[in-house]
């Protein structure tokens, strides 16, 4: 079988993987806090028929024959740029406003109350349980953590009536309550932000969550800074949610490029097949 057939097949396989990444981006264009991905292509290893050599008189030989063997997806990159901030009006809808800061300002840290596993997300759609714990709105109800690594709580004390909840830019959570006919402001907790030295190494686990590895692992290199609006951490914006950062214009343009490249790779296979057919017919 001629090598060009394998080269064309490698093109189709790689472009199919790239198209799968594009499709996942487009499918999650409305997913809260979703960060788009990009497939990075690279050439395969080469067949060296003749390498550069020096002759007996020291004159270099330029009779170099190197044949490529196709293409493959070398890696997938995640784009952690800031997504669009949408105002919702719900007091436990919070977004991280990272702007031009590294990694868009960090992630909310969550914990699975059943397994104890930690996860990280940009989707800040939360609600409060009857006990006052701040949890995600999905059916699993992962718990939001505070700077002490404990479940964030916005519960009331005895004799209090909740008026409103205020979350400041630095993550301080204040409760405006009525106690014995008097309106007071009471600090309820401090929201935690988790940021990473290399967020590209975080593992996507679905539902808008990232994992920093199994127990004992530190894939992304978590930074020792948990306070919002400090260092490279973004500011907290209450009454808002961060939407997906997928740019449909770029995704559709890349899709057209993939389609044309797929057609070209298919033509290589078709031409190789025609050559093989002629070679077989030579014997007749």
Explain the overall architecture:
The chain has 284 residues and is an alpha+beta fold. The chain folds into two domains: 3-43 and 67-76 and 247-274, no CATH class; 85-242, no CATH class. The chain is built from two helices and 21 strands. Strands 9, 10, 13, 17, 18 and 19 form a six-stranded antiparallel beta sheet that branches. It has a three-stranded antiparallel beta sheet with strand order 14-15-16, with no helix packed on it. A two-stranded antiparallel sheet has the order 1-6. A hairpin with a 2-residue loop joins strand 18 (203-206) and strand 19. The two termini are 19 Å apart. The mean pLDDT is 90.
Entry summary:
With 284 residues, the protein is α+β, with helices and mostly antiparallel strands.
């Amino acid at each position: 079988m001629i090598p060009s057939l394998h080269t064309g097949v490698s093109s189709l396989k790689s472009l199919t993987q790239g198209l799968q990444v594009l499709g996942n981006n487009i499918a999650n264009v409305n997913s809260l806090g979703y960060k788009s991905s990009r497939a990075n292509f690279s050439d395969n290893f080469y067949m060296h028929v003749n390498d550069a050599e020096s002759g007996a008189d020291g004159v270099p030989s330029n009779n170099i024959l190197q044949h490529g063997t196709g293409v493959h997806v070398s890696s997938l990159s995640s784009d952690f740029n800031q997504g669009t901030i949408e105002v919702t009006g719900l007091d436990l809808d919070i977004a991280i406003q990272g702007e031009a800061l590294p990694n868009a300002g960090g992630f909310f840290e969550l914990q699975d109350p059943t397994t104890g596993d930690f996860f990280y997300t940009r989707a800040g759609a939360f609600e409060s349980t009857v006990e006052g714990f701040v949890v995600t709105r999905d059916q699993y109800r992962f718990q939001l953590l505070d700077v002490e690594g404990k479940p964030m709580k916005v519960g009331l004390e005895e004799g209090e009536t909740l008026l409103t909840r205020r979350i400041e830019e630095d993550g301080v959570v204040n409760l405006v309550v009525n106690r014995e006919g008097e309106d007071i402001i009471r600090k309820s907790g401090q929201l935690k932000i988790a940021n990473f030295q290399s967020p590209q190494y975080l593992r996507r686990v679905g539902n808008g969550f990232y994992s920093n590895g199994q127990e004992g692992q530190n894939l992304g290199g978590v930074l020792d800074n948990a306070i919002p609006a400090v260092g490279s951490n973004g500011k907290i914006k209450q009454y808002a949610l961060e939407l997906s950062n997928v740019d449909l214009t770029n995704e559709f343009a890349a899709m057209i490029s993939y389609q044309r490249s797929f057609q070209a790779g298919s033509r290589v296979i078709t031409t190789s097949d025609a050559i093989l057919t002629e070679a077989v017919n030579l014997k007749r």
